Amino acid sequence: MSSNPQNILQVQNLSKAFLGVKALDNIQFDLQKGEVHALMGENGAGKSTFMKILMGLLKPDSGEIIFEGEVLKSNNVHENLQKGISMIHQEILVVPELTVAQNIFLGRETNYRSWLNDKAINQKAQEILDLIGVKINARTKIKNLSIAEMQMVEIAKAISNNAKVIIMDEPTSALTDNEVAMLFKIIKDLKAKGVAIIYISHKMDEIYEITDRITVLRDGQYIATKNTNELDKNALIALMVGRQINDLFLENNSIKGESILSVQNLNKKGKFKDINFEVHAGEVLGIAGLMGAGRTEIARAIFGLDKYDTGEIIIKGNKVEIKSPEDAIKNGIGYVSEDRKALGFIPALSIKENISLSSLGNFVKTWFVNVSNEHEAATRLATDLKIKSTSINQKVMTLSGGNQQKVVIGKVLLTSPSLVILDEPTRGIDIGAKFEIYKLINQLTDKGIAVILISSELPEILGMSDRIMVLSKGKQTALLLKQEATQETIMQYAVH
Amino acid sequence: MYLINRLRKYGIFVVFIIISLILSFISPQFLTVSNWTIIITQASINALLAFGVTFVIITGGIDLSLGSMVAVTGVTAAMLAHPDTFPVALPIFAGLLTGLLMGIFNGFIITKSKIAPFIVTLGTMTIGRGLALILSKGRPVSNLSDSFNFIGGGDVFGIPFPIIVLIIVFIICSLILKKTLLGRYIYAIGGNEQASRASGINVNQVKMAVYSISGLLAGLAGVLLTSRITTGQPNAGAGFELDAIAAAVIGGTSTSGGTGTMTGTLVGVLLIGVINNGLDLLNVTSYYQQVVMGIIIIGAVVLDSWNQKSNS
Amino acid sequence: MKHLYSTLIITVFFFASCSQSKKAENSGDKKIKVGVTFLSMQNEFIVNISDEMSKKAEELGVELISVDAEHQPLKQIEQVESFIAQKVDAIIMNPCEVEASSPAVTKALAAKIPIINVNSATTTQPTAFVGSNDAESARIAMKFIADKLGGKGNVVMIHGFMGQAAQIQREQGAKEILKQYPDLKLIAHQTGEWDRAKSMDLMQNWIQSYGTKINAVFAQNDEMGLGALKALQDAGLKDKVIVVSIDAITDALQAVKKGSLDATVFQNAKQQGAGAIETAVKIVKGQPYEKELMIPFQLVTKENIGQFIK
């Protein structure tokens, strides 16, 4: 590949694998001075691994990064920062108790003097803020700023680093429309000054408004780079999702029965709005949407982990009040969280103790837990779910991700639920365990259990669900039958 | 190798045996029935507090108000225990009830306000000390009935009553922790509070329970101490919470929650008791006693953490 | 030294005249205001002093502001500063520590407010001192033991909190007497931290290691003496061992009356409390006063117990 002198950054044949799984496979990428370049792809396409390598957080297995005509060898964040590669993170990384100026020069205070010199950094910081046209006093404490203002501070910080490349990862996710407009104005100014920007976002309209070129990644592979004005939305979506649905998914022939859960006009301010759906016995309802669309939030509300503002939850025809997971479990709802570590299991307890945790009350005789009954029940589930371990008394923290997930599912199943909510049940587990979980979903529906499947993997949603609800920015944009759903239609509704 | 692994698993117990052996070589009086009766009797008050705080620490909490609760409950009991006033059951009951109420208060504030247990119980620690002084007007409450004094000073078939109390409470606490729903939930909450809630455990209820138990046992300790020294002292129990926490930690209860056993705590309590007794027997100067005690506590915990690391 | 002393006397006279002139200004019915800071209101003896002060203050028509320093010298200094700010006529301090409470004296003197130390001393000389000599109390107690044992036998001593003024002086007094009786041997000494339960444990352990070898126990306060006494009674050894302690608190007097505690040393809280108030009033009114009002100790035994129990 020839090196274009306009290119500030050129990436060739970049590959990276984690534990044998290729996260990035032969990536090509180039970035020109004064360009805004969108990086697109589904969740898990490899965008964040790629950005981490650019930042110096990860070391590539093979391939080259050429920055300003020189091969970038370092895998050290500080060094890359000094060379001029900065990143505005999705979660803002600032120290709330320090002032704006102190944050901007955090870690670089001694550039000015051997002693801390607040006066110098205040002055310098104010110059940069004025330069990008932000009306923030450098002496203000960060905690007194809005999210958008914090983001501006992050940008100022990047500029103070003489950044030549700024990576923006979902920068508008927490901003209001006005603030987005302000951000775009700053981006245009930066562009005019020759700064190159890598822009990551799921929001199509933003991509079309601000970017010059688009590079699409899928499953860790480089798909294409196109000029933004030559690529329409549908073509872009096709590039992003365009893969064959393989036969990982089994035919679901269960008989759909009575309504198990009906959700009516469920609202939670800032999270989701006017959600209406119904799940029947033996049915799988898929919930699709981009990250932050409100999928998990709805599940958490139904399960009693969070409160909702208004709306009704009806279980088997009866209106119920669910104030805690305890109430939800009593009403026959089981929840397998997307965040296994935080909400799924107790690492220091055994497989047996984790599986029985939600239904331990059933094993109590007079005062004490009947250990042999507990053992028997847990053993049955561990065998059914094919949990690989030396013994049922093994601590869950020593198990692999897939087996930990099975323990969590075992715990939910032991409560004999009539509805199981699976939130990203296959995230971070290997293909074999994935297949077993798909089989399990079918076993559940065969028994007449209703299943809600939340997933970012469209093939999984399409392969497993009878119906699919699509969410976008907390709103329900579609409720599709299996026959009418394709990856493209889902994506269109998801970016609605 | 098997032997070494066993030794590692019971690290503190081994330390306890070694220290006991050393002491029995140096001091001929150490390994006698009468001396051990004294060691265990002296350790009984710390044991009650340590058992209570073990529950609390396993949930990931802490109770700093133990010493003050001992003072309040002791003074309360003493005020009702003068001869020829009330039957002996009343002061005992009042002491236990006072402890229980203070424990419930701790639990209530901790679960409702979501303030860290360290801060809440630090507050109750001061409140308790003040209450004890108010109740007693700053003076020891003495002249207690003989039947009341029996609890701390009497014996049954030659076994001092405090030892009998210790054994009964130990058995009950072990059963609660090992065999009951509450016990399992205590471990679960300490291991991962969020996941416990998501598993349908009423986390607040369990926390209320552990602080209540801790308070109740502090009440029992207060009654026992008052009876043993035959007076209700408003300044009694200062620093007791630290001894109790030390015993639990020496016994392998992790301050980050989720692990610990009553047997471990009992060994921790006895280890502290043996060291106190041994240093007195050997007439080690007061200044050095404190240093030796500190070294042994740190050493025991370091050894234990080393064991745990090599176990996992 | 001499020079320092004379300076002090001059200073005192200066203050005396100052307050006199002040008095002249405010002549009439203005009440004398006195601020008092105590070492700790958790100590029965101190509470007794406080009670006597209140009584005397009422009698003399003095307005009393009492505060508790809770064993913290820093807090005590702050309290004295606040008295100075409130412009009290005199300050009475029951010092937490010999050294650490000294700045409070300096500050009061600098603000030209007379300050009286009660019960224990500070390095910096106050306007006046009312109290007793701690070493003397231990001498009295140990002398009693020596007499009872005929100058021969084994003694154990229970210290208060190590390093506190009272502990240091009581240890010093006891050792002076021990030196005079070479056959009186101190076989063990440990701290009981002024605490009854701790001293009971300590005594139990000593009984284990020394058994009947112990002829007498000297505890540096009554709480600890009573703890040791309980241990000896439980072991059935009381009639073989003499127990003596200091302070004459109510429980100790009761024990002496019963004959279980052999003796305690009466530190006169009443005279110390009343004496401090009287001295304060004298200074404020510009009357002559004693710079060091020493209240004598009294040995309390079964023979004279009637004087002490109402």
Quick overview of this protein structure:
Helices cover 76% and strands 1% of the residues of chain B.
Describe the structure.
The complex is a heterotrimer of chains A (496), B (312) and C (310). Chain A has helices at residues 47-55, 77-83, 100-104, 118-131, 147-160, 177-192, 204-210, 233-241, 295-302, 325-330, 340-344, 351-356, 371-384, 401-414, 431-446, 458-464, 487-494, and strands at residues 7-18, 21-32, 36-40, 62-67, 70-71, 85-88, 165-169, 196-200, 213-218, 221-227, 259-268, 272-280, 284-289, 310-315, 318-320, 333-336, 364-365, 368-369, 419-423, 450-454, 467-472, 475-481. The two termini of chain A are 38 Å apart. In chain A, strand 1 (7-18) and strand 2 (21-32) form a beta hairpin. Chain A has 17 helices and 22 strands. In chain A, the strands form 5 sheets. In chain A, strands 6-7-8-3-9-10 form a 6-stranded mixed β-sheet, with helices on both faces. Chain A has a 6-stranded mixed β-sheet with strand order 16-19-20-13-21-22, with helices on both faces. With 496 residues, chain A is an alpha/beta fold. The model of chain A has no long low-confidence stretch (mean pLDDT 86). With 312 residues, chain B is mostly helical. The mean pLDDT of chain B is 90. A two-stranded antiparallel ribbon of chain B has the order 1-2. Chain C has 310 residues and is α/β, with parallel strands linked by helices. Chain C has helices spanning 2-25, 44-60, 73-85, 102-110, 134-148, 165-180, 196-210, 222-234, 250-258, 269-285, and strands spanning 32-38, 62-68, 90-93, 115-119, 128-131, 153-159, 184-191, 216-219, 242-247, 263-266, 292-294, 298-300. In chain C, helix 4 (102-110) links the parallel strand 3 and strand 4 (115-119). In chain C, helix 2 (44-60) packs across helix 10 (269-285), helix 3 (73-85) runs parallel beside helix 4 and helix 5 (134-148) packs parallel to helix 6. Chain C is elongated. Mean pLDDT of chain C is 87; it is low at 4-28. Chain A binds chain B through residues 303, 305, 324-326, 328-330, 335, 337, 342-349, 353, 357-358, 360-361, 364, 367-369, 371, 411, 415, and chain B through 175, 179-181, 184-185, 187-188, 191-192, 194-202, 258-259.
